[in-house]
Fold this protein.
Amino acid sequence: MSDTPIQATLSLTERDGLPDALRSLIKAYPRNGWEQNANYSQLIAFWLDRHLMFRRLLDQLDTDVKAALDGNEAQDGYKRKLSRFGGMLINQLHGHHQIEDAQYFPVMTRLDTSVARGFDILDADHHSLDGILSDLANTANAVLQYQGKQPGFVDTAAAMKGRLDRFRPLLNRHLVDEEELVVPVLLKYDPPQFR
């Protein structure tokens, strides 16, 4: 990735989408036509499915913490689910981002230099998300390690709910922007190294 710093307005916490200059490919390859495109590949389908998995894991974590807060899920049951699904989300996201940064983004940047800045933005997102995921993990660990009575448990679970509520829009913003940059590049160039 380039050494150019990302403008604050393009940071994950500030932007509401990619700048128009980086949206030329999504206009040429709109989302509603992806699956019908001759270059729609198993890789694209797999990659989009991973994004769907992240969204579903967040939904599951949100459902579970609401049940714990409402008293419809015992502490131990909630902790088991949080450990399983929270660990899966955090670990899978880290791995996904490492592969993108090391393998996919450098190739895609060379394929279409007109959108290279977009890959810098996505790379910067990954660094931002690392810190946010660390905070999410620390909050989850506080829930998992809590051994006290229900009122204190509700407080730790409420902190988890707050972290999830702040994380969801940031992850979704990143996933949407990534999809709208990566998939059109793959559809346009159908790179042989990704077949």
